[in-house]
Amino acid sequence: MDTIDAILKAALSRAAEAEVYLSTGESISAELSRDRVRIGQAGYSTGLGIRVFGDGRVGASSTNDLSRWEACLEAALTAMRLADPQPWEGLPGPVALPADPLAFDSSVTLAPGTVAGLLESMQSGAAAHAEAAVTAGSAGLSRSKVEVANTHGLRYADEETHASCSIEAIAGTSTGYEFASSHGLDLDPSWVGEQAAFFAAHGVGGEPLTPGTYDLVLSPLALAELLEAVLIPALVGRNVHAGRSRLAGRIGERIADERLSLYDDPHRRMGPGAAWFDAEGVPTRRLDLIRNGVLEGFAYDLRTAYRYGAATTGSAVRGGYGGAPSIGFHTIVLEGPVADVMAEPAVYVRSVVGAHTANTITGDFSVEVSNPSMIEGGAFTTPVRTAMWGGNVFDLLSAIEGVSAETRNIGEMVLPALRVAGQPLVG
């Protein structure tokens, strides 16, 4: 009898239901300090999370030492007895799911030479802009496996690989940063290095910006920073029912440009959070959030769905083995009218500083623009010294002029660059 079976058997004698979440992983990484490798690391991790249920009460505990699973179970049972009861209709049972992992690349092996190659390629790319110097960088590879099991006979396993690299550069007082991440080795580290050095070099001698109204092109990174601060939390069922979402009670209403759609596609192969099942063992499915500008629905996990009389959308996620699952997203995709967003004059917004201070209910924000530049004809023209931008995230959804055909993965999202009209900027 393996550890998972032993835990479930022991838990069932003292609780109505139990769930086990087991994660294991290996990783290797290295960091740059200027032009040298400062430190290299390799690691192995194991994590165990246990949840037990009884009479509407839930208790949770976790450990990184599998040999202490009995103490971990005892702590979860104690927490269950102390918890307040809540609506609960049970953990899911097993269903047939595809066996092939959606986010696994067998070519990702934890070889020091591969990590070194990523670092060297970034440095080589950065050398295209000799006036910029590399200040720091990192690269890493990992392979992991998670298992979810419960006392209803459910037991699923999933494997995942991950590769990432990032680099920082400086030219005078101008800085640049770029990164890439993927489940496979399809990264372009040379491009990562070149972009970081370009933005550092291009920003030297930036000119002051005349206050006024401008068209903006938001890079996928800048767009992600604003969406993560306001729109994504507004689509979480718990926030909706707690009165923390401007979108509460608006399903079926148009809230964005009719050409814009936003959905979570957990079955998108090699998508950021691609998976056949969520952190509670519920089968995942495509979740349309905004379709043709109309609000379609919200995300739920089991706990929130039971509490508010809704149905889970297979949107439970975990940040790790500790604690309990929460509502999240797997692979958010934004689609809109494809256009050459860099062709006409605009201000390019590389990223923003201060998105976390946005009002998550109203959507209002005031941020500093990082690496701003004038663009025209598909090229960066005059660098801008500094710029401040104030607006409303929800209003942006109705001011779009087009999105780029190219997309990139940012966190759990797959995003294009987005062009918006009539935005106020000050220098």
Give structural notes:
This protein is α+β, with helices and mostly antiparallel strands. The protein folds into two domains: 3-199, PmbA/TldD fold (2-Layer Sandwich); 205-427, no CATH class. Helices cover 20% and strands 39% of the residues. The strands form three sheets. Strands 7, 8, 9, 10, 13, 14, 15, 16, 17, 18, 19, 20 and 21 form a 13-stranded mixed sheet that branches. A six-stranded antiparallel sheet has the order 3-2-1-4-5-6. A hairpin with a 2-residue loop joins strand 5 and strand 6 (174-182). The mean pLDDT is 97.
Q: Can you lay out the helices and strands and say which pair or pack?
A:
Blueprint: H1 3-12, E1 17-33, E2 36-54, E3 57-63, H2 69-82, H3 112-126, E4 133-150, E5 155-171, E6 174-182, H4 189-202, E7 212-218, H5 220-234, H6 237-241, E8 261-264, E9 287-291, E10 294-295, H7 302-308, E11 316-317, E12 326-327, E13 332-335, E14 346-349, E15 351-353, E16 364-370, E17 373-376, E18 379-383, E19 387-392, H8 393-396, E20 400-410, E21 413-426
Parallel strand pairs: 7-14, 13-21
Antiparallel strand pairs: 1-2, 1-4, 2-3, 4-5, 5-6, 7-21, 8-9, 8-13, 9-10, 11-12, 14-17, 15-16, 16-19, 17-18, 19-21, 20-21
Helix pairs in contact: 1-2, 3-4
